[in-house]
Amino acid sequence: MTTQLAERPAPSAQATPRRRRKPRGEGLSTVLIHLELLVVACIVIFPLLWVVGASLSPGDGLGEVSPFPSEATMAHYADLFTETEYGRWYLNSLYVAVINMIGSVVLAAICGYVFSRVKFKGRKAGLLSILILQMFPAFLAAIAVYMLFLNFGLLDSLTGLALVSIAGALPYNIWLMKGYTDNLPASLDEAAAIDGAGRLTIFVKIILPLMRPMLTFVAITQFTLPWMDFILPRLVLQSADKQTVALGLFNMISSEYANSYTTFAAGAVVLALPITVLYIVLQRYLVTGAAAGAEKG
Asked: pLDDT tens, 55-78?
């Protein structure tokens, strides 16, 4: 018996781990996914190359524009700030964007906390009304907004435009903040209430810091929204010195005798640069906030 046990080979100290076999079709699906991503990337990048190439091409027309111009020039970027009021348009859009961002973050945080944590009569009806309002685009109320601005003296006002932008995006932001706050443990509120903290203290010192990812998401999206908006500024802004970037760039190519397409392309590139950098730097917060807000509503 002892001899038989001694003759058995000792197990190898460094046993080679068995490789997990890939399921059939996994390699093919990976290739197809990467191929799809490549196609989508080409579809997105190709128009961007044309815009950048147009901004560097000589002349004003689009006849000889190419993604890689042979005689690239920066003259259109210089003309953008010397021959037009692009700097003023940029500051006007920045003013509207900052007010829209601050107002949206404050109101969405407060309303989201109230609808998530406070039980009051009409809460479900209020949430349903906000959800219904969210389904309608803001431009459907264009006539009502115009009459409202006319009666309150807010026509041709950048502040009024910011208020409309805040109100238009508020239903969506409230649902985002409510969904995110629902995922926060209610035991935090209960523990703080036992220690004698009021609702305001609980909101400011406990819940608000935990809302940081979603607050960042709302802040970025609401900051970038006014840069691209055209319909509402076209409706309520009338003076030349109150124009936003969208209106100013549109006027470059809307005239019958002055069609500066290449300068328009340069303005679009300058407009997109800071927003692109902002999205890249804060991409982690954007993904986290969007995913967390969609988990529970």
From this structure: 888 887 777 777 888 888 888 898
